[in-house]
Amino acid sequence: xxxxxxxxxxxxxxxxxxxxxxxxxxxxxxxxxxxxxxxxxxxxxxxxxxxxxxxxxxxxxxxxxxxxxxxxxxxxxxxxxxxxxxxxxxxxxxxxxxxxxxxxxxxxxxxxxxxxxxxxxxxxxxxxxxxxxxxxxxxxxxxxxxxxxxxxxxxxxxxxxxxxxxxxxxxxxxxxxxxxxxxxxxxxxxxxxxxxxxxxxxxxxxxxxxxxxxxxxxxxxxxxxxxxxxxxxxxxxxxxxxxxxxxxxxxxxxxxxxxxxxxxxxxxxxxxxxxxxxxxxxxxxxxxxxxxxxxxxxxxxxxxxxxxxxxxxxxxxxxxxxxxxxx
Length: 327
Known about the structure:
The chain is of the alpha/beta class.
């Protein structure tokens, strides 16, 4: 009995070590370069975010392989989503989603892939939007722009991305609420959208603070409205659109990560672990604050519920805005 008492803990420890090593051997770790798919061209919000995250992940030593951003613009988000779907089961590919990944399939029959066909990993944050004009624009606030649009129907122009993106949906909602009309011009990249505004080819743009920050700080852009429920802490003197008498639904913009269909449990756990640690890093927290993002980290069942709720909300918003919903 004495020897049994002595050796039993050693046997248990040895068995535990075996199972521990077995479990470790079954854990997924990337063995080659990781593809990070975005639906915008270079300079777009998703492109900028993905590149910043790739750099921070490597700086924080949270991934051992290089992350390469892959731009798959076209068809709203359809091209990027189809590309990700074609990578079924590929553990070395992820995609950075935004709200257009939810709305685009609702209005486009050609967009055969929805977020429900992909594997949810995490929602990283929520992102506010603002209405910006050139610094020398005659429009000092949203009221000025609306009055000009009423006097000159369809003569003013707004630069934007996908027609199912938040910037165009907010245009449709504002037009319906104010009885105005102006033209929406879709560009494939954020750089083109911004350069056309700065060049005076369009008069207005709905843009995220992250994407416009440098131009705002340089004094090249003027923000005339915040598309938020409350004023942004970084822009306390900019009134919300509702404060300016335009009562419209504020469309949330979420950004996060999806994996291809049929991602294994081990792959999901790996990426959840990476982004769990990433979300707590000092570099990410500073990035969130500097770019006026809102905390909104989700994963697992709460993230799946978020997609269901957002799909229902956007279906209602699209109908309210007068857009045709196909699914």
